[in-house]
Amino acid sequence: MKSLLATGLNGLVGSRFAKDFENTYEFDSLDVRDEKQPTDITNYDQVLERFQNSDATHIIHLAAYTDVTGAWKQTDDENGITYKVNVTGTANVIKAAEVTNKHLIYVSTAYVFDGEKKELYTEEDAPNPIEWYGKTKFLAEELVKKAQCPWTILRIDQPFRSDTFEKVDTAHRIMQGIKDGSLYPQFTNHFFGPTFVDDFGKVIDFVIRTNTTGLFHASSGESWTDYDFAVAINEIHNLGGEIGKGDLEVYLANSERPYQRNTAMSNEKISKILDFEMMSVKEALEKVE
Ligand SMILES: NC(=O)c1ccc[n+]([C@@H]2O[C@H](COP(=O)([O-])OP(=O)(O)OC[C@H]3O[C@@H](n4cnc5c(N)ncnc54)[C@H](OP(=O)(O)O)[C@@H]3O)[C@@H](O)[C@H]2O)c1
């Protein structure tokens, strides 16, 4: 099996990828929780040692501080955990990849955009993050783009997977909310581009197999409102719930934390080169357990 260096394999996205590709890759996981060899990406020496001791040709870098509200409370704090993990941590991964000449695959987010565009975001659109999590992911992207090693950036949005996981994804949160009657009214004017994690893992594998480099949007390429997404889950799974309608503008008027109105992205650039077809969001929702 081919060795693959990885960060963030305990997370929502990474753990599914690791499970689906356990027979394809021998994972060399940089994991803070590892009892034998704990590796914190904010510690360059620890990262470099792991890279130097690995014969992997690629590193998939998923580790991040992903609590957007928690990050917002640290706005502009370069000593905060968000900046340290997302920017300093990524800088360490880049440096180690440069020194050992490995291909770096960095997973980023649609939150690098301000959300004001009315259409799907493309790779040509200029990022303009409006909150700290998005800003730190953007700063890290900028570092990756300057890396002196082969690099790929894959942006995703609101990932959901077919199985349940300890960190509850958008699809499972809505499904549970419909079942127990606790679902808030869903915005009819907030747009996002759901990413089916099971398919996204195949995109990562494709990038490794084909040594594809550059910046790509790897979400579904579709635009959904929260309301339509909830209605689809309700119908596809015959849940018989009542979905209320909410207004993002009312929410924003009462919320201090900025929230992007639209994060749906076009995936045309990557779809053209993939050697498999990604599922539509409706097909993916049918797979959700
Ligand atoms: N979830 C989303 O809505 C979303 C949307 C767009 C893009 N993304 C991006 O997709 C990637 C994966 O997201 P996710 O939702 O799977 O994240 P997640 O569930 O929050 O998992 C984050 C992972 O990062 C690891 N990590 C955190 N700090 C670390 C450190 N200092 N050193 C080493 N590892 C560390 C965590 O390890 P422990 O579990 O051991 O702490 C965990 O495995 C991230 O880069 C994120 O920015 C996520």
Write the layout of secondary structure elements.
Layout: E1 2-7, H1 12-20, E2 25-30, H2 44-52, E3 58-61, H3 68-72, H4 81-100, E4 103-109, H5 132-145, E5 151-156, E6 159-160, H6 170-180, E7 186-187, E8 191-192, E9 195-196, H7 197-210, E10 214-217, E11 224-225, H8 226-236, E12 245-246, H9 248-253, H10 268-271, H11 281-287
Parallel strand pairs: 1-2, 1-3, 3-4, 4-5, 5-10, 6-9, 7-12
Antiparallel strand pairs: 8-11
Bound molecules: NADP nicotinamide-adenine-dinucleotide phosphate.
Question: Care to describe what's here?
Answer:
The protein has helices at 12-20, 44-52, 68-72, 81-100, 132-145, 170-180, 197-210, 226-236, 248-253, 268-271, 281-287; strands at 2-7, 25-30, 58-61, 103-109, 151-156, 159-160, 186-187, 191-192, 195-196, 214-217, 224-225, 245-246. It is α/β, with parallel strands linked by helices and 289 residues long. The longest helix has 20 residues, at 81-100. The chain has a single domain (2-287), classed as Rossmann fold, CATH 3.40.50. It is built from 11 helices and 12 strands. Bound molecules: NADP nicotinamide-adenine-dinucleotide phosphate. Residues 7-8, 10-14, 30-33, 40-42, 62-64, 66, 85, 89, 107, 109, 137, 156-159, 167 line the site of NADP nicotinamide-adenine-dinucleotide phosphate (NAP).
